[in-house]
Structure formats: structure tokens, C-alpha cells
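input
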Amino acid sequence: AGYDIAALFGIRNFYEKWGYIPALPEYRITVRTEAITDAQLHHRVVDYTEQYKPAVLRMYNDNNRKRTCAIVRHSKSWKGFTKGTTFRVDATVKVFIDDTGEPCGYVSFDDTDERTAVAEIGYTTPSVFGSMVALIAQRASEHGHEEAYITMPPDHPFAIYLRRYDCNVIERFAKTGGGMMRIINLEKLFAKIAGELSQRLRASTLCNWAGAFGIITDIGSVQVNIASQRVIIEPLSGGATYPTIELPQGKLIQLVVGYCDIATIALDNDVNVSPDLTPLLDALFPLGYPYIWWSDRF
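output
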């Protein structure tokens, strides 16, 4: 029972007292309207309604299957596009229809005349990206906005597509507040992500590594066993001589979600890492772009 981790979007200098630490960066991609006015709209565009919910959910879950920290959306529990790019603005969503009459993409705009801002996009094929840019340009031009921005990780395929348009990318990593996380149940967390860690190991140059190491934190410890390219989590065995990493649970969650890498975390005085573990920890916990889309924030 209970949760394995907790996440929130909090005020500054407050939630640290309960063990929370910044672990979710903010990203913004800005593009000048004049730079995208040559984009062509090749799809029919309609307003989002409930009839498009199943297709939109499929797009979202397919697009974010490998996105660390992205919320898995279920038809029965998903509340829809609850907000734009802040907690204080609603969303207005457009759906793109292909030549067969099927939904092939969607764009969630801030429902305000003050700016052209996109909180989320989804797609079945990247071929719809050009039409998405055209719609963004159209809206910005109609409202007299000199630029538009999209809140999304910079490794997202649409963000990479925007590079042809002279865009600017901002990544913000907060010292306090913002997207924060903490571990609640260390052993259950690692048992649940063991499959993902096994996949990462198999895809790395250390795929044939075998052995064990311990993770020791202020809320408990676990033993990570690796054999036959498989990661298995067990309680930490006493008296063992295998290598260990010792660190606060907050810094461990930063490592787990890819907010920081082991080389950076190991510089801190409250972190101790057996030197021969560093390459393996890099393979298991690579740097990434963890993200929770605005509609799922709480």
C-alpha cells in the first residue's frame, strides 16, 4: 500500500523540510512568428471534442512511452486538457485530420489572446509537424504576436523539427521549488523499475556486467544484483564486500530520473560512491529530460 515516490510543483524554500528536491526541469522553445510564416497547412483542423479522446490518448501514450516522469493517461481517470502553460489559464485544443479522415495530431494552446503558447502536442506521424507549425504561425499572426513558444523537452521530435526555424531553447533547473520529488519506498521503487534498468543495461556497452552493488540512503537500503543482463532488487545483505553508493534519497531520485548524472552528484560531500561503480551507474541512470506535461500537473 502507499506510494513509492511523491512529486509536486511547489513554492520556493518550503518543501525541502519534507525531503523534496528539485527533479523536474522546465523547458521552453521560442520561435519568431516571421520565421515560421512560410509553413504550409496540409491537414484539416477541427476543435477537440470527446469523440477524439481515444485517438488523442493513444497518441499521447505512444509519444511518451519512454519519457521519464510522464504520467500514463487512462481513459477513465484522465481529466482532459485541464490547463495551458500555467495553472491560471485554460487550454484550447485543435486536432489535425489526415486524408483518410483519421486524427493524426493535436496541439494544445493557451486559451488567451495575450500570447501564442503551446502546452502540448501529440502525433501519429511526424509528417503532421509542418501543419502544426503553420497553425501556430497562423494563430500568432492573427493575434499580432511577434513570437510563439512551446513548453516541451528539447529532445522531443517536434522540438528537433523546430530547429530549422531559428528557435531558442531555454532549460531551467531550479535551486528550490518548481517540480520537486522524493522517494517514499526505496525497495518498492527499485523493484518496479528493475525491468527498465535491465533494458538500459542490455542497450549499453556494459551489457555483460555481472555482480552486485548496494544503494544506501537515509530512508533505507537495497541490493542491486545483475546477472545474465537482468537487474534484480533485494534487501541489502549485511557484511557483504561489494561496492556501494551512499547518498540522500533526494539526490538518488535526481539520479534515477536523469536530472543529474553520477559524476556531478558524486562531487557532493554527502555522497560516497565506489569509483568502479561510476560507468555502471552511468549506464543505468543516464542524463535525460524528465517531464510532466502541464495538463497532468497538480
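quick obs: Residues 67 and 291 are 7 Å apart (CA to CA).
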